[in-house]
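Entry type: protein chain
Record version: 2
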Amino acid sequence: MMLTLFEFIPPSLDYLLLAPFLVVLGTACLGILVEAFVPRKPRFIVQLVLAVLGLIMALVLIVWNWGSPNLADPWSDVIISGTVMIDGPTMAFWALLFGFGLLAIILFAERNLHAGATSFTSSAASVPGSNAETEAADAGLVHTEVFPLAIFALSGAGLLVAANDLLVLFIGLEILSLPLYVMVGLARHRRVVSQEASLKYFLLGAMASAILLFGVAFLFGHTGSFDYAALSRGVTFSFGDSLLLAGIALIGVGLLFKIGAVPFHSWVPDVYQGAPTPVTAFMSVCTKTAAVAAFLRLFYAGLGGMRLTWQPVLAGVAILTILVGSIIAINQMDIKRVLAYSAVSHAGFILVPLVGAATLTSGMMPGTASSVASIMFYLVAYGFAALGAFAIVTLVRSQGREVTDLAAWAGIGKRDPVIAVIFLIFLLSMAGIPLTAGFVGKYIAFVAAWQGGYWWLAMAGVLGAIIAVYIYVRVVQIMFFKDPDGPTATITQAGPATWIVMILCVIGTVAFGIVPGPLLDLLQSVSTFILPAGS
């Protein structure tokens, strides 16, 4: 019998293009070593400096690659045996993830620096408010492991958005998710609620991952390969195959769970409410951004040949998500649950341009933004508003603890008008009011759906946006025009780190609402997904 020898082909690695991701991953690994070997007292400063420098270096490398003369248009590379694609959308989503991740890390630092009023304070006690816990807070014993956990989550998100292979997609999703399960349970006050949210998120997340893995198996059975190029060829020549349809449905469920779309949104309000507020801010932006980016690449580059199959289904999911998120948010009396259901409705608005699939190759109208560019801009607008809003939530306190009951927020606009006006700006952006980035984001999202042939979805999105306005008007009315009926909360003095986050978020929200053109042009120039040759 003659043995056939297979030649080993070493993977191609372009370390310069991959450098931003490698820096973030290396920073996370160094954070684990710091946690293990650096003494407790200096550990917080070391972890903070390491995390901030790592993310700044990653952003600098992204800018360097963006302007490198060696990367001609279209610049891209397929590395690690074709499993990872570094192209325009990858770099753009990396910039969003690492930039917003840096702001969230700064917010983590602020809460840790004020140990007596933070949700991250560590103690050996098991009863909230115990003497041992108070002593630990006074001693500044903090959960410094939140920094490497967050950086590991960002590295998983970075791998997820660059995945050009179904197995890499699953690996990136798990690296993103596992640290988040731990971070959700790190709250010191209301510890039982936090740990319950962590367990619920873990169980539902594990189920969603298993469903996605089943979808990967079905698609592999259909194409005989995990890479998106083979998937693209398979769906072109075998339209309507049952394995293919089942695989698309199951993978869609797994990714829609991470996006927080209806009917896979049940984890969102409980996890957002139970997690420490800085963790909620981190999740609301980075998790959604990574999941949306992965969804875009898979469904546009890999499953584009099945557009007529998945577009109507996602259109229904988008409408349902907008309506459910907006209507349920109206009756919520906890500000974090209001923002959680608001995040659900925003997931629906993000799906609107995704369904339209308006791209350069599908007859996009000249002078308009493609669906990918529209979604990127929407994520920028939502990221600034959500991070800024949650930063302010950390400041509203009573007896040193966060107060999220809206009844206690009554009259805050009179007691601290500066912070209240800043919060108002973020709410206006979420509502899509003109002269804010949120308005531009919604407008170009609806235009992308319209030019993709889904005019009725764009109209439904406009009606949903009108309904959603009431969510934020209600909060504004409570803050500025309602007198308190009982105990009230006060706004504690914001530290420099929180001010940095709030000011940057306000600048981004207002600037991109008034002058969105430069950012839109930049995003449009890097909005084309590229498949390997031969796809």
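Comment: The chain has 20 helices and five strands.
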